[in-house]
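Review session, final week

We close the course with one last complete record, chosen because it touches almost every idea we covered. It is Oxygen-insensitive NADPH nitroreductase, a protein from Marinobacter salexigens with 245 residues. Go through it on your own first, then we will talk.
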Amino acid sequence: MNPVIELLNSHRSIRKFTERKIPRELFVELIRAGQSAATSSHVQAYSVIHVVNPENRQKIAALAGGQTYVAECSDFLVFCADMKRSTEAAERAGAEVVRGMTEQLLIASVDTALMAQNVATAAESEGLGICYIGGIRNNPADISEILRLPEHVYPVFGMCLGYPDQNPEVKPRLPVETILKEDYYQDEQDEAQVAHFDETMKRYYLERTGGNKDTNWSEQLKPLFTTKLRPHMKDFLQGKGFKMQ
């Protein structure tokens, strides 16, 4: 197995960082690596806010659900889907631009995720740790106000970056056979494979916590589809100009 695949397979979320700071030169190279990700029609529909102000870091940590590592990591980024820059460029080129289409929201969100994952991989290749912060979508309007995000720009997620002060195990993933389908969608074996994966995750949580966390993958999913629904996102996105037409 080559070093790149080994690196990708070794990903862990890091939530405890040393006080060591990432050198500026390396930080900029990580962003450049992010820009090398695939992008739909070369739109590059993203902007990255490097949150340096300590007070703002503290505010975002609280708004994201009390995730203290947002304030404690070396560098914190907010990855934003950005259709403002590209639509304005097309207008200046003479186009009668149509804004707010669902396709534009999808393009910007996918571009942003691809760019961020490049940053994450580049960071981990340099011995850094990262942690995605989806909790900023708990309060996207407040986050947008702090970051002064204009219309047609929305915060997709944050990312903590820094030198790790912990060494957690790699969290198991679903078997390849569960997610890889041949020719057409087949789910005849999904229930049995998920049940087996639940046992794997139960052992993982018990071993990781010394027996203090007795749960599995399916149990962990329940809040996502019952209470952590973020129904405010639709109105928020429409208010940002993404009408989803």
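Two points worth writing down before the exam:
The chain has two domains: 3-170+229-239, 171-214.
Residues 62 and 100 are 30 Å apart (CA to CA).
Good luck, everyone.
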